[in-house]
Amino acid sequence: MVLTIAGSTKGFNDGKHCVAQFKDPRGVCVDEEGNVIVADFGNHKIRMVTKSGVVSTIAGTKKGFQNGNVMISQFSGPNFVCSDEEGNIIVSDYFNHMIRKITKSGIVSTIAGNQGNEEEEQSNYLLKYPRGVCVDKEGNLIVADRGNHKIQRIIKGGVISTIAGSTQGYLDGYSNIAQFNNPMGVCVDTEGNIYVTDSDNHKIRKILNNDMQADTMIEIQEIKHM
């Protein structure tokens, strides 16, 4: 059975599920209390839907970039969300080319990335139009770096390293030669393997985890016969 838990017409409105409005909502996750966290891409806000169906705005005022208290914070096209082991909300801030964090105490900060301009293509972005984000068993963030065609790891402290991906294209094999074409979603299984929706290659990819090997020895395989 499919149910609508919140949302009416396109727009912006907090309140009960039947009158609440979203604009092009993207990523969604569930926090430790069972609330649904939504990246409201078109409204540049992070929203919450409670178990009783009441919608509120957690963070974000208008399109832009601003850290600090959630009441003044700004996002530019928040895309995907996840929750870490401390209950913080992690946001891929698409047009700001950043990964942001919203703490339980209501403070927004930047974890990684450098602010860009959506109207200018630049080659020096640390992250470029980040999409999917998830947390691995060590508490590191895994990011689908769409514009750079790579899968990135962000350790605590904000240091970014490439797990897999070289240039735009399609190629299975070891991580230093593997190719993606606009990777979108990512998740990690209990064994530490990473799954990637490789959007413009129209494939689901798998990055094998092998603790005995360096990152450059992680093999990329297309998932078949599933």
TrEMBL record:
Q: Which Pfam families match?
A: NHL (PF01436)
Spans traversing the lipid bilayer: none
Look up keyword Repeat and say if it applies.
yes
Which residues form the NHL repeats?
A: 21-52, 127-157, 179-211
Recite the UniProt keywords alphabetically: Repeat
What PANTHER family does the record tag this protein with? Answer: NHL DOMAIN-CONTAINING PROTEIN, PTHR13833
What is this protein identified as? SMP-30/Gluconolactonase/LRE-like region domain-containing protein
Organism of origin? Arcella intermedia
